[in-house]
Design brief:
Length: about 450
């Protein structure tokens, strides 16, 4: 059986790869692992708006209750809200049913520990072993079977917390929100209006058939175009579970996670709030981010792709902020995982305090040309171990030298190799990517 856990939990096409039967097994294994030292474990459970959400939720609830765990059902809520409530309610763990930015046919299951942090590789490995071994896990009966409780004010609790962390009114600011038909559909507009901002909200219905479809943070052109309709506005685009965000300034410039991280890191440093003068990015973070931070004496540390790997590096280096180009930003004094709403609020607070438009920060980072492509392969892990693939990577690195970077890695959530090239000459790296794609397809056909 292939590995269940990817870079962000267990994901797959709902009812094909992620079946209710598998969801039940994963929930039983995860519930047991997280709650084995607790007499009566409690789990906070929430989801995004996907059509398969109810089906997977039913299986997960059954799994958790069947090992004696009580469930606090918070309904549709952003992933970071579930992380916050897990810690706030002193639960044993949190469970999110979401495939984040993935297509609507996918769904996923990810866990948080009692402090609202994603699990380490070792912890996920342990849950995976329990799932696959189908070991005899507890089967309580009678009153010892878990119960389910609905928490109707979960959204209010999360919203009030975020507003308390911002501590500033947003009067005079107009925002255009793209909620991607996802988990932020109601709570993001509510928070911004409660803080005094004028809000134009699009794709803000909980329609699972449309989640992430030509909208949200993976389609920034949508929020860019909408922001142009309202001069002087700030565009804010979330993904399906609102753990990432992309911004658009009033001139129509798109600011991805690297650009946002540059703004936040530099401003925190100016206020002596950037511990150890370190910011954590990933191997995919643009060279431009590294150069922008270095002007202020800030070091960029690179982790593996995945916000939980960013978090692990933040713990190792005692950093307070880290993130990914996709818009996952973690600011540990306030949140335990990527939080799109909080990140947008934190950025706008800087603008409000400085009395500057977002466009005034567009030159803080010069982005080097970077192109990426997903290449379908039969065995994304196996191909990376072949002699020909190792030879290809070495050859490409020799061609690029110190004028750019090449990253070839298995996708953590889909059956692709993700190839990313970065360099000064965009035309050159585009031609190089064509050659790489051809070589990878040849290697894939030869070995598998």
């Amino acid at each position: 059986m292939e590995r269940l856990f990817g870079t962000d939990g267990v994901r797959g096409v709902a009812n094909i790869k992620l079946t209710p039967e598998l969801a039940l097994k994963v929930a039983r294994a995860g519930g047991y692992f997280l709650g084995k030292d607790t007499e009566r474990p409690t789990f906070v459970l929430g989801r995004d708006t996907r059509c398969s959400g109810d089906m997977i939720k039913g299986a997960v609830i059954a799994g958790l209750c069947s090992i004696g765990g009580d469930v606090i059902d918070v309904g549709i809520l952003p992933t970071p809200g579930i992380a916050y409530l897990t810690k706030r309610l002193k639960a044993t763990g949190g469970v999110v049913i979401s495939a984040s930015h993935n297509p609507i046919v996918d769904n996923g299951i990810k866990f948080f520990d009692s402090n609202g942090f994603k699990l380490s590789d070792d912890m996920e490995d342990a849950i995976e072993r329990l799932t696959k071994e189908e070991k005899d896990l507890p089967r309580p009966i009678g009153a010892d079977i878990g119960r389910v409780k609905r928490l109707d004010d979960a959204g209010d609790m999360y919203a009030k917390y975020l507003m308390s962390q911002v501590g500033i009114k947003l009067d005079g600011i107009r925002v255009v929100l793209d909620c991607a038909y996802g988990a932020s559909y109601s709570i993001a507009p509510y928070i911004y209006r409660a803080l005094g901002a004028e809000v134009i909200s699009i794709n803000d219905d909980p329609v699972g058939e449309k989640i992430n479809v030509n909208c949200g943070s993976t389609h920034p052109e949508v929020i860019k175009e909408k922001t142009r309709e309202y001069q002087g506005s700030i565009g804010i685009s979330f993904d399906g579970d609102s753990d990432r965000v992309i911004l658009v300034d009033e001139e129509g410039n798109i600011l991805d996670g690297d650009h946002i991280l540059a703004i936040l890191g530099i401003e925190l440093s100016k206020k002596n709030l950037l511990k150890n003068n370190v910011v954590v990015g990933t191997v995919l973070s643009n060279i431009g981010l590294e150069k922008a931070l270095s002007k202020y004496g800030i070091r960029l540390l690179r982790a593996q792709v995945g916000d939980r790997y960013v978090l692990e590096e933040m713990f190792r280096s005692d950093a307070v902020i880290g993130g990914e180009p996709s818009g996952h930003i973690i600011y540990l004094p306030s949140v335990t995982t990527g939080d799109g709403i909080f990140t947008s609020l934190m950025t706008i607070k800087i603008l409000k305090e400085a009395n500057k438009p977002l466009s005034s920060f567009k030159g803080i980072m010069i982005r080097y040309p970077q192109i990426s492509e997903n290449i379908k392969v039969k065995d994304k892990f196996g191909i990376m171990t072949t002699k020909d693939m190792k030879s290809l990577i070495e050859e490409v690195n020799n061609i690029i030298g110190n004028k750019g970077r090449c990253i070839i890695r298995p996708s953590g959530t889909e059956d692709y190799l993700r190839v990313t090239l970065e360099g000064e000459d965009e035309g050159f790296i585009k031609e190089l990517l064509k050659d790489i794609r051809k070589r990878i397809e040849e290697i894939d056909n030869a070995y598998f």
